[in-house]
Amino acid sequence: MTRKKRSEQYNMDDEVIIGYNVKLKKDKTTKKQKKPKITNNTKQPKKVNNNKSNERNVKKTKKTTKTSVKKKKNNKAKKILFAIIKLMLIIAIIVGILFFLFVSPVFNITKIRVENASKISANTYIVLSEIHEGENIFKIRKEKAKEMIKHESYVEDVKIRREYPGTVVIDVTERTPKYMIEKSGMYIYIDKNGYILEISQTPLDTCLLTGILTDLDNVQLGSRLLEEDISKFSDLIKITDGLKNNNIEAKLYSIDISDSNNYALEFKEENKKVILGDVSNLSTKMLWIKELMELNKDESGTIHLDTNNIYFSPEQKTEK
């Protein structure tokens, strides 16, 4: 017992020997672990007084806004002034040019030329136009001149142009007499569209129309026949073209247009009449006219083409 106690009392590990230095090993487990340093690459922004910075920014913005507004106003004013000056210069140039054109004697009319006039004299057209030599070429009223010239019944269309510096050209398109109508010993000339061109005592070497519905007592030059008559003019053109293609148009004297379903043709020199019917199968009918006229060259009579039976009926001679 005493030994145990002694051994417990003298434990060398717990004893300190004087004059002998021994470094005691520190237990690894007892070492304090260093805390790992947290590294952050992003620098933390310095705290700034927000109120002061906002005030500075507002002041800067106001200054820049004021200067930009001033600049815009100045630029706008400059642009307006430049535009006004430019407009005034343009107006001044235009006024100067117009003054020169309307006042300068260089542009006075020295010649009036009429083109394509055959039925009416050139002088008549010049008088109707009311355009005068010596007048400024830019002052003439072309539309009014055209209207005045178109009062002439033979005029279908008219164009007026300027040839600078001093020539005016009147270019007319005249109507041509195509048919005539006899009324009380007078002859009324009409064109292919039914316009009344002239009333004369002299007959034309052209086709005479009979069976007209238009009141010929009150006709005026330049006016047209009634629509009932004009509607048959397309048939007239077909008939005359068919006769022309068969070389017998020159022999035609008159056409009765009172009935569009039964046109009647007269060949005065041949002493023959043709009851044509309507304009159906017209090319065939023309061939029959030509053949029957040659077969009955020396006889007067009528050629019937208005029925299915085509024939020639000689004129019956009355016994004296």
Helix-strand blueprint:
Elements: H1 2-9, H2 50-103, E1 111-115, H3 122-129, H4 142-149, E2 155-163, E3 167-174, E4 179-183, E5 186-190, E6 196-200, E7 207-210, H5 227-230, H6 233-245, E8 254-256, E9 263-267, E10 272-277, H7 282-295, E11 301-304, E12 311-314
Parallel strand pairs: 1-3, 4-7, 7-8, 10-11
Antiparallel strand pairs: 2-3, 4-5, 5-6, 8-9, 9-10, 11-12
Task: Spell out the key features of this protein.
nine-stranded mixed β-sheet; 320 residues; Ubiquitin-like (UB roll); disordered N terminus; 7 helices; three-stranded mixed β-sheet; Rossmann fold; alpha/beta
Largest beta sheet: what is the strand line-up?
Answer: 6-5-4-7-8-9-10-11-12
Question: Approximately how much helix is present in the residues?
Answer: 25-40%
Low confidence ranges: 1-7, 22-31
Biggest sheet overview: 9 strands, mixed
Ends distance: 207 Å
CATH topology (level 3) name of the domain at 179-314: Rossmann fold
User: Per CATH, which architecture of the domain at 179-314?
Assistant: 3-Layer(aba) Sandwich
CATH class of the domain at 179-314: Alpha Beta
Helix-and-strand structural type: alpha/beta
Oligomeric state of the chains? Answer: single chain
Mean pLDDT: 83
Could you tell me the radius of gyration in angstroms?
Answer: 58 Å
How many helices in DSSP terms? 7
Question: Percent of residues in beta strands?
Answer: 15-25%
Query: What string gives the helices and strands in order?
Result: HHEHHEEEEEEHHEEEHEE
Compute the number of strand runs.
Answer: 12
Question: What global shape is seen?
Answer: elongated
